[in-house]
Design goal:
single chain, mainly alpha, two-stranded antiparallel sheet, 2 strands
Length: about 190
């Protein structure tokens, strides 16, 4: 029993910390904000991950711990086993605070930086022409379609530059761009 480790902690310490967190959740004394949400998600996520990775059928055929984290976590919130205040705190932390975006970006960046440099250079040499060609084709199709349909009720009508920026070119959010004057359709 002492050989089992969850999140780098011995099982007895993990159970003690989880018990304190569960008691805080039940009594409504759980800290709000990033600290409480991160602690709750980390500990119970690690427990559900371990549970999914040791359950035979789930581990082999359903994807293991990741699936258990998603579905059991959703079920605990849906059946109100996790208090609403904790669920809302975790939701704000993951969505509004932008932690999920940061985690995905860190995961992708870490995966790329962890690759062998020579392999990365060989792959980039092969992929870059395809990427540049695809973007050029997309820009060309937008130019053709905006020239053929200048009376379109879309925000791209009236300006080829605006159409190229709105449709195929990378942008973090279309809301970050403002259309040139006179290019947005009038609403009646």
């Amino acid at each position: 029993m002492s050989k089992i480790k969850i999140a780098g902690l011995d099982l007895k310490w993990f159970l003690v910390i989880s018990g304190v967190i569960a008691a805080g959740c039940a009594l409504g004394a759980f800290p709000a904000g990033m600290v409480g949400a991160f602690l709750f998600l980390m500990l119970f996520g690690e427990f559900l991950n371990l549970l999914g990775n040791v359950t035979p059928f789930v581990k082999t055929y359903l994807g293991g711990g990741a699936i258990v984290c998603i579905f059991v976590g959703a079920a605990l919130v849906y059946w109100h086993i996790v208090p609403n205040t904790v669920a809302e705190n975790c939701s704000v932390f993951m969505k509004s605070a932008g932690f999920l975006d940061f985690y995905i970006a860190a995961l992708i960046t870490g995966s790329i930086l962890g690759m062998n440099r020579k392999l990365l250079m060989r792959a980039a040499i092969r992929y870059l022409p395809c990427i540049v060609g695809a973007v050029a084709c997309a820009l060309g199709l937008v130019a053709i379609s905006s020239a053929l349909a200048p009376e379109s009720p879309s925000p791209t009508s009236g300006s080829l530059l605006w159409a190229a920026a709105w449709e195929p070119a990378p942008c973090p959010s279309p809301r970050c761009l403002k259309p040139p004057s006179g290019s947005t359709p009038k609403r009646s």
